[in-house]
Design the sequence.
């Protein structure tokens, strides 16, 4: 989605070739018609690392790009294929999967330390900056901090609907690291004391198991699985409180979108979330225990004036710090070999 945003905003300034390593090109439909972008596939069998690197290097030599951009650990062997360099390399790291939720895998640390030592590394969170410079031991002069940005005005058009029951909502891919199960356990405690509903927006491999858990917890009448939605503004319009229950995040766009929508945030203390929300909202960012998350949600659910105050502060913080224009300008400068952007 970030690529789509940048490509659409920068128009004919660049030409792009996209190789989705999982073969999923669904986001192509969001690219504007006047953007010059070509989509390619390449075979990358598992357990064939050396063969894949040779294959990637041949393709890279054929493409002859001015800039190679790789995203996250899944694309790291394209960076390996660029040694010795065939193109200037920018690596963008957004975070980690469930296998690295609590600790870095040493093999990956050493690989990143070696492969990325002469690359430009772009990170959207201060926590990732710390990991890259202290654990991966990358040269801080090559590491750029570029926070995510969103179209604030698009989300500030949200007008929240009046209703008798407080709606707690989350927007997330239903994957293990998002730990929606934690939110369900927390919500069971919330709805026992406050009239509330839970809207879960998103889809993924965990959906069936989460629906079964909601039934076991006796929540089927209080929880609605909304599935994937094309326009997130509509989803945020149905919320009074936004909840994040992840095990691992860095700078989640859903939190930025909820802030821009004028919502209070109850969240687990992961990544940059405490620094993202307004100062007044920070008390509702809790350790990972479901009971503590439930306490934050319950306090917000009982106090509409508090929700309004925090929502206003979050919207102001989003506008001041996380606008789309700044992100687009910074990435364009990086693609054109600009100076480092420090946190």
Sequence:
């Amino acid at each position: 989605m970030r690529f789509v945003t940048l490509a659409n905003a920068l128009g004919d300034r660049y030409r792009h070739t996209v190789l989705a390593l999982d073969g999923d090109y669904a986001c192509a439909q969001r690219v504007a018609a006047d953007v010059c972008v070509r989509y390619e596939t390449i075979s990358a069998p598992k357990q064939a690392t050396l063969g894949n690197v040779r294959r990637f290097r041949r393709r890279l030599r054929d493409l002859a790009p001015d800039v190679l951009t790789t995203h996250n650990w899944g694309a790291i062997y394209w960076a390996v294929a660029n040694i010795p360099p065939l193109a200037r390399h920018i690596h963008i790291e957004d975070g980690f999967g469930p296998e690295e939720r609590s600790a870095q895998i040493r093999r990956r640390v050493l690989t990143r330390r070696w492969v990325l030592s002469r690359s430009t590394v772009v990170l959207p969170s201060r926590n990732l900056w710390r990991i890259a410079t202290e654990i991966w031991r990358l040269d801080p002069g090559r590491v750029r901090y570029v926070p995510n940005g969103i179209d604030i005005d698009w989300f500030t058009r949200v007008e929240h609907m009046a209703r008798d029951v407080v709606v707690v909502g989350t927007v997330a891919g239903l994957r293990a690291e998002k730990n929606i199960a934690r939110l369900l356990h927390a919500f069971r405690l919330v709805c026992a004391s406050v009239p509330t509903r839970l809207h879960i927006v998103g889809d993924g491999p965990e959906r069936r198991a989460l629906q079964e858990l909601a039934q076991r917890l006796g929540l089927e009448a209080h929880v609605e699985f909304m599935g994937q939605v094309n326009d997130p503004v509509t989803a945020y319009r149905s919320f009074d409180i936004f909840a994040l229950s992840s095990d691992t995040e860095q700078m989640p766009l859903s939190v930025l979108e909820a802030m821009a929508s004028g919502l209070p945030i109850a969240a687990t203390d992961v990544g940059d979330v405490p620094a993202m929300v307004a100062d007044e909202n920070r008390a509702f960012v809790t350790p990972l225990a479901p009971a503590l998350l439930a306490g934050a949600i319950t306090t917000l659910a009982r106090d509409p004036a508090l929700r309004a105050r925090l929502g206003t502060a979050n919207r102001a913080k989003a506008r001041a710090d996380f606008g789309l224009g700044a992100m687009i300008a910074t990435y364009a400068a990086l693609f054109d070999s600009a100076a480092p952007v420090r946190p």
